[in-house]
């Protein structure tokens, strides 16, 4: 089993006043040659956005973009929709940028900060037609068990959002001392485990809130929660750039 530890305080950080951004991988003004990607996972940003602020209209292409609000109200608008789309905690948003899309993202609250993860996955297909989707996922459905949020169009799971990559994003909430064994799809897949909150032990690696561990070259690994913990798994093919 191969592992790579990314402690929370080793991430790139940018303070833009209205935006506090933590970058797990090289992004914008932060560059670390040893942290460009983890397989097909290119970006994992942990952002906090001030009330009424956000990102103005900007372009993307040939990228699978997944947004997971954790607190607050996200509002999204793109050139596929005339109206603002509201995305709340408990919901997940996916966007296939494909041949090109223009979009805006703002904090839809006038008094509450917005906290979210934004994830970019390198697609297996280039030049697809842009598409957008979102879905609600109930917290009770990930209590002690894996809740799949996002998977490939080729995956038979019909309860998850779909993207153009052989990927599986999932969450689980574990109680103190509870254990869970994760089984990657194949030996060609790796799993990037982000500790949303809590304190866990993965095969001897102790992770606290916002610490992450990349795991590859294994058929399984076991997690023990040292206290109540919320985890995000990003399973991707271990492609090279």
TrEMBL record:
The keyword Iron applies. Binds 1 Fe cation per subunit. Keywords: Iron, Metal-binding. Fe cation binds at residues 58, 60, 103, 105. InterPro entries: Pirin (IPR012093), Pirin_N_dom (IPR003829), Quercetinase_C (IPR041602), RmlC-like_jellyroll (IPR014710), RmlC_Cupin_sf (IPR011051). Its cofactor is Fe cation. Residues 150-236 form the Quercetin 2,3-dioxygenase C-terminal cupin domain. Residues 11-121 form the Pirin N-terminal domain. GO terms for molecular function: metal ion binding. Belongs to the pirin family. This is Pirin family protein.
């Amino acid at each position: 089993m191969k592992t790579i530890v990314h402690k929370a305080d080793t991430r790139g950080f940018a303070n833009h006043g209205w935006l506090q951004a933590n970058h797990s991988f090289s992004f914008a003004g932060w560059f670390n040659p040893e942290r460009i990607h983890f397989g097909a996972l290119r970006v994992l940003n942990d952002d906090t956005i001030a009330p009424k602020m956000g990102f103005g209209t900007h372009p993307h292409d040939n990228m699978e973009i997944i947004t997971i609000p954790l607190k607050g109200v996200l509002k999204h608008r793109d050139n596929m929709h005339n109206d603002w789309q509201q995305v709340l905690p408990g919901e997940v948003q996916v966007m296939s940028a494909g041949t090109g899309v223009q979009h805006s993202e703002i904090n839809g609250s006038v008094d509450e900060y917005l906290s979210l993860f934004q994830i970019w996955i390198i697609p297996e297909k280039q030049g697809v037609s842009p598409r957008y989707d979102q879905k609600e996922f109930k917290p009770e459905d990930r209590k002690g068990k894996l809740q799949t949020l996002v998977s490939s169009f080729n995956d038979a799971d019909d309860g998850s959002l779909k993207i153009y990559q052989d990927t599986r994003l999932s969450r689980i909430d574990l109680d103190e001392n509870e254990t869970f064994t994760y089984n990657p799809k194949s030996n060609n897949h790796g799993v990037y485990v982000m500790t949303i909150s809590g304190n866990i032990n993965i095969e001897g690696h102790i992770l606290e809130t916002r610490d992450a561990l990349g795991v590859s070259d294994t058929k399984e690994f076991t997690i023990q929660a040292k206290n109540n913990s919320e985890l995000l798994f990003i399973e991707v093919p271990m492609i090279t750039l």
